[in-house]
Amino acid sequence: MFLCSKFHLMAILRLTRVFRFDMAHVLRNYPGKCKNIHGHTYQLEVTVKGIPCNEETSPKKGMLIDFSDFKNLIEVEIISVWDHALMIHQDSDPELLMALKNNYEKIITTPFQPTTENMVCELAAVIKKILPSDLQLFSLRLYETEKSFAEWYASENPE
Question: CA 57 to CA 99: how far, in whole Å?
Fold first, then answer.
């Protein structure tokens, strides 16, 4: 029996894409090792939800979003910006910030301490703005290491 009957085409589905990027950060005034510039290979899991395309003549019938479109959206807006960058608080030592910006291309200054928890919230804000209107951001999971991650769920973060 074929599982995707006409009834199921109106089902709300979730789709997840996994991304990896390398980025350095530094935690301003932190009392431990993370007060030094250091890097991670991050893994970002982006899950969206919506109703798949139900247009009979569409080659994308049954798709929530084409995986390549999903990939390109996140790659362009986030991965290309964050990959091989240094994220640092905007209120860090002004001389340090100037020296970094004068010598390196990808310095991201933030109004928040660049912890994984704060980064996942920033990612949620950016992704919600760039998603097609028929999709909703369901959740994010940002791994800082293989064993440590922060999660964000739309259901727990109402507008």
Answer: 56
Q: Mean pLDDT, the chain, as a whole number? A: 93
Is 89 annotated in the active site? no
Catalytic residue among 34, 40, 45, 75: 34
* Helix H or strand E segment including 103: helix 94-103
What percent of the chain lies above the pLDDT cut of 90? 85
Looking at 4, 8, 84, 151, which residue is catalytic?
84
Q: Is 34 a catalytic residue?
A: yes
What pTM, to 2 d.p., does this model score? Answer: 0.90
Q: What number is the average pLDDT over the span 54-83? A: 92
CATH topology of domain 10-154: Tetrahydropterin Synthase; Chain A (3.30.479)
